[in-house]
Amino acid sequence: CFECCIKCLGGVPYASLVATILCFSGVALFCGCGHVALTGTVSILEQHFSTNSSDHALLSEVIQLMQYVIYGIASFFFLYGIILLAEGFYTTSAVKELHGEFKTTACGRCISGMFVFLTYVLGVAWLGVFGFSAVPVFMFYNIWSTCEVIKSLQTNMTASGDQICVDVRQYGIIPWNAVPGRACGPILENICNTNEFYMSYHLFIVACAGAGATVIALLIYMMATTYNYAVLKFKSREDCCTKF
Asked: How far is CA 116 from CA 34, 37, 220, 224, 229, in A?
């Protein structure tokens, strides 16, 4: 029984297992927190920066579309992570010859190569997602830092913060004719004190961290699948022993 357990543990693809756990965690954080943060962002814009619904109608449709895309991303990566983990078990067992003499087919090597290519493509795509998820963090950080400046002026009583403003129209998320489009002084400070702003800001940070974790998971997948494919292709050659 002990030898059987050791043999089974030897066939566990630990790299793929770690990558799967990290991928599931990262995608869950990105999708869950990103979905709620987008809803909070729309609420902040409607209440404080764009009172006319027609001004931000396009933005609302884009955000709603992004939320549907989030559902698709979560479903796809759940299935893809399980498939990659199963492929890791297959290749690890074949490479270590746990179930007898080494055997592989051209179809199996082709499938492994396809996963290598697809994982590389997804890794590059998620680098873009990671960079894109940092944009709302940057925007919310600018608003939060402006509120901190207003608070420090009021605390030190050095000057009035009424002339310090944040104009979200300059970010391009609402048109220039949106009313009021900006918030100044105490109004801006009240916005920063709302639960919607606090939650959306921190949820965007967590979503960005989740995207970063997913990128790391895909990098681990890249290394594991590339190594497994290379070993499978090498051991399938008839002269592998002399070449090695």
From this structure: 28, 33, 11, 9, 8
